[in-house]
């Protein structure tokens, strides 16, 4: 549609690295489900214990291929984080323009402006946001902008044991991510493409059953009240 | 392919019970505003008691609602940001203008309507209460025209609240249960049930020997209640299944917990209809009133609980619901009881003050003021 | 209602309502006020956009140069999140000395796919971690590696010397001075008001036999048991104290309850019953890897490197792998498609599967004859194979022959030999492949693979069979269908697997490990690993590689010789665990034979081929067979958590000081074992401590991790300002007792000059000098290396201990966190550079000539089907029939946790409990749903667990994830003086299968269920039943 995409990034300090577009590519074949990224991110970004900017979901998958062969059971790991959507609904709803998308695609929150209404948390179809119970503001993956800007890698990428996570500038055709995306063009998927959010976390080898929602047996959870 | 989640972290609920409270009180406020307009237009048939009840429900709830809303902000001290960074494309931001307008109008309307009653506080033997009569801000008479136009404006403003609160949530494409016309409609129609429940609480609080016979609930009042309850409960029962069938991934009707929830809601709405029918037949003594208000308030409240809180336990992506247990503290039960407590406290004080005048002023006086209103 | 009452009620309503509101709204009010004053209701963030994220450790400027952050340093250290012991890089805040975050050391092969060349300057190494280059160069820490920084400030940490008050194990402690600690431990006395306790001084008697009836037990000094967890880098000084200074024979570590069944089985194949070497797949070049009883990327040693290599390999076109285990591991990958497959198996039946495969391989000529038929090194050279084995050597197969089970030697059949008969220089006899005549293994031509004949010897006929013949016969003892029934895998699948395994030449490998920890683990492991021998993949690229090893450190090195010192004691006597010593040489045996009685059964089993076993030490000591202990010094080992059944068997006994009078623990925490001590010596955590380790395996190049205190120790200090830790405790104890090897003149340099050993620095800096000078030495570090690695803080000590030349070289290795051979040195053509040189044992002579001391029966010298057994040979399922115990318990390591990682709250927030896996078929039978609580009972005990229904568990099996179910390490509040340690809020952190471990009722001297041959712990395949409600 012709609707304008709201980015809330008029202010000078909200431009980011103009001319670039950051994205992440996760090669699911290489993800071993070790959760190094989860903990690395948690420490780097000092998230409160139990609140995560990135998670890795672990599944058991039973393939019934219809043959007389016994069932083939296997594992599947799915790292999740903010998709830094090109059309981010979280940004559009913010009543105070606290959350914004930089020119380089990174979606961020201004901790000093956020009123913590959690509207953006509700608007994200990917559960990528939360209200940080320590800072009491909306929190989410920033692609470790504080590191990327200094030429470093995000914590989760840096410590990815399987080497599954790749970050980079997709406008730079020579970047590792661009090369990999070109090479695997056929196999690349995003989560919930139907949401129209245009996610910029891409997956290699994401099975169709995991694209939009999981139909299966639910995990065991500890019931939780609010966290704040 | 059979999938079993081995390790999946739950997503915490982002909107706490405060949100339900806000929706409950603000909904009651705008519904009361609309019912007040109607009752006021039919003022020759409706009672002052009933209109006072509505106007009080409207005003108290319009004040209480925003208080609850502020609590759902984890940064209530930054409420000013709403105005500093007005964001016309965000319904919540728009709401930040609409809501104070409505609350203000609601209070003004109530004040206008109750000015005469306030004036009567002069009669009190208590010097402090006497002084409260100064709140009339002068001796002038409120004209019916002024009253009607203010009330209508408030009613309209109430509609904007219904619109913005409904749309604010309905625009969230992330949750199919919210992202549909049925959800704002459901909240709108059930708001009236809540308004009626709260009004009956006020009536119960006011109810005393001192209320003069002609001021007590009229048949028209009861008919308004009856029609409202029957109409709105029926509509709720129509919208509810439409609403529920819009969940894209799980069929809510297949889930035992949801079956229970729907059954409870239906029983609630049918009970509301029964109340509606009963209301015109019963004597409306305090126990009945309290019973009726309990039934209607719980139905309205629970609908909001289910559609706002329970909906958040439905995952956007994962297989099963994220369990939520109501905390005992401020962000849970204590918060809920606290808001109710505040509402009741204000209602008690206000009705008590109104009782003061009723027990002291003369019938003539009153009739006069009443005349003034009805003829002005 | 009267007016008054109404008024009263209403005011009640008002007051109550406002009161409840005030309470319910209080936090909002607080937030509001806080927000108005501070600008935020929450914690103020450092940056409006970046929140509280850490400041970057450095940055890369426009010119691509690395710019330091003066507030931080990045230093190399070692992780102790699991026993992989990876080299890590640690960001430290220079102002607070707090650890900020941990990732991988770019020089370290365990943290990297291909470690950075060792000569890279540190600054460049750090630069290689940044930007686009950093993607390829990434050197990682796993979840534990990241999270374990939390142990340093853990509220459960012990930082001062503690002495128990009240009963042992009660959880009440009193802080004492270091001096009091040393005095009491050394001098003994009435330490607890419970009577006299011998101190170390009284126990140390290296001359008087502890038991005059059984002089072979050794001197009284053996009544001190010294154990550590494993070699986390500080083994050498510990053993120096135990063996060579104090002079006790009894040192133990966690080996026997780690993966010892596998190690022993591998040692049997590798012909190495000393160090129990093993091989690992060369994942990078293998085409097919069969993992039986181990789960790469879920656990495995090394966890991280193996995980990374597997992740990469499965994106290759020419790579496939299978994992065979009772529970689905996270090794599998739906995303990688068909190239990986999980096969379920009944626990404890692996040799059935493998012998079935081998049977098919024999039948279908799928053996690597060329490899197998080379009888010795000369033939190997001639044939150009990468290795050789004893497949063709002749085993004396006549049960009446005194050398039954041994190899026929040249001297026994009149062939030429040198030296003494039956000595190493007496060659093995083979049958020449061409001539069919007897020959020697030293010949250059191949030998006959299958031999079964009777040979005329000078002393009569000798029935001999070649090793491979023995294996073949053992394999064919049962039908394929029998094997299939044992392991629950259909015959066609066994065949398909054998076919697959033998379809990649030498580029197929089998690997195994912890899945052998059951009562028949030794033979299972021996069988599994035999597959490698049969396809001859050893020492080959893409095949099975040997351990590359490390460089000398605190041994005999180019700068210092740690192995010799004045007064050095050679420990003597029999290990408490009755291992490595043939029972047939004991006084007891001789007495019993002399008395005309059968020497078998013994009170408890002897383990002729095993290393010292911590699975037996304690039960032996309590039972007094062979002898009792007077004191136990334990460093970090936690057998009461880690050994199945031990806490049930000994928990209460160990609480009784009469059973074991003095227990001293050196640890940073109170774990299930240290909780039972009399004294706790606070220890440094890994980032604060010294240590030198080399990777356990899985690295084709030489490597030594050298860790040094990159941050200040949080333990209290000695009077002379050293931090209290293991080393200083050992040193000061030794000095107090005037033991040799510590104090003045303890370490000799290459020129014979003697140096003192008064602190940990004295020891490790000199070890580091050896490391730096070994193998042609390393260059001198430059100032930038020192700066960028944060080594400056160590310079004063380095200047004190080292020569200036040494200093520069030591700085070079310390700046890089160790010494590492370059990755490009992995191969030599198509072979591995570092090779295994001892011949493989298709038949292991030592095993084949040893006996079980309960039954008196010989062990079989080659893989053979043995079901799970009790110590007396009774099959487990006869002892505990299926009708009564329908379930089998299985255990796997957590992909997230280790046994110590529950000390990290962040890790716990990801996973805090371990539901037990149950198959839907079994769950249905018992009406269980996921999330239900049910009771699991074994013959020894019973626990309650949460059920998780998964297809990924063999029917009839329950799967336990390890690392949970702690009873200490924060799960119980200890009193230290007047303060109580905090307790974790959660009521439980899940279950530990070891709480269900079995006691073996078939032995006289009580012990836990162990492998019936080698005495390793049996934590897999335990019999059980379940009940619901
Ligand atoms: N994540 C993580 N990694 C670790 C550790 C850790 O604690 N956590 N610890 C490290 C240490 S100390 C070690 S020793 C290694 C051990 O590494 P591994 O040996 O790989 O791990 P284990 O879990 O001991 O056992 C491996 C597998 O054996 C399977 N198994 C159990 N019983 C049987 C059986 O009867 N037959 C077969 N075929 N399989 C069976 C289990 O399902 C399990 O998946 O891991 C190291 N790496
Ligand atoms: N059921 C079951 N049992 C098992 C296993 C299993 O998979 N399942 N795994 C087995 C295996 S493979 C092994 S290797 C053993 C391991 O067993 P052990 O080696 O005996 O002990 P760990 O449990 O590794 O714990 C070591 C202790 O060191 C202390 N510690 C931790 N960090 C530090 C530090 O930085 N400094 C100091 N000074 N102390 C520290 C803690 O008190 C901790 O309890 O367990 C075995 N037991
Ligand atoms: S993933 Fe969610 S939070 Fe991130 S940009 Fe998209 S909508 Fe916003
Ligand atoms: S929580 Fe903060 S960022 Fe999110 S919508 Fe509300 S004000 Fe905006
Ligand atoms: S990019 Fe940074 S913030 Fe985002 S998930 Fe990774 S570590 Fe966390
Ligand atoms: S660190 Fe990498 S391999 Fe490990 S879980 Fe995260 S994405 Fe997967
Ligand atoms: S694999 Fe083990 S040693 Fe290596 S980083 Fe992870 S926890 Fe630490
Ligand atoms: Mo281990």
What structural keywords apply?
heterotrimer; A: 228 residues; 6 helices; 20% strand; globular; B: 376 residues; mainly alpha; Formate dehydrogenase/DMSO reductase fold; 12 helices; disordered C terminus; binds ligand MGD; binds molybdenum atom; transmembrane helix (chain B); Electron_transfer_protein (chain B); NrfD-like (chain B); transmembrane (chain B); Tetrathionate reductase (chain B)
Biggest beta-sheet profile of chain C: 9 strands, mixed
What is the approximate shape of chain B? globular
Greatest interface (CB-CB under 8 A), with counts per chain = A-C, 79 and 86 residues
CATH topology (level 3) name of chain B: Formate dehydrogenase/DMSO reductase fold
CATH level-four homologous superfamily name of chain B = Formate dehydrogenase/DMSO reductase domain
Largest beta sheet: strand ordering of chain C: 11-10-24-25-26-6-7-39-40
CATH arch. level architecture of the domain at 162-259 and 577-688 in chain C:
3-Layer(aba) Sandwich
Unreliable spans of chain B: 359-376
Rg on CA atoms of chain C, Å: 30 Å
Shape of chain C: globular
- In oligomeric terms, what are we looking at? heterotrimer
Give start-end ranges of low-pLDDT stretches of chain C. Answer: none
| Discrete helix count of chain B | 12
Whole-number tally of structural domains of chain B = 1
Average residue-wise pLDDT of chain B? 90
Secondary-structure arrangement, i.e. CATH architecture of chain B: Up-down Bundle
- Structural category of chain C is alpha/beta
Characterize the main sheet of chain B: none
Domain 4Fe-4S Mo/W bis-MGD-type (chain C): 72-156
Protein name (chain C): Tetrathionate reductase subunit TtrA
Family (chain C): Belongs to the prokaryotic molybdopterin-containing oxidoreductase family.
Keywords (chain C): 4Fe-4S, Iron, Iron-sulfur, Metal-binding, Molybdenum, Oxidoreductase, Signal
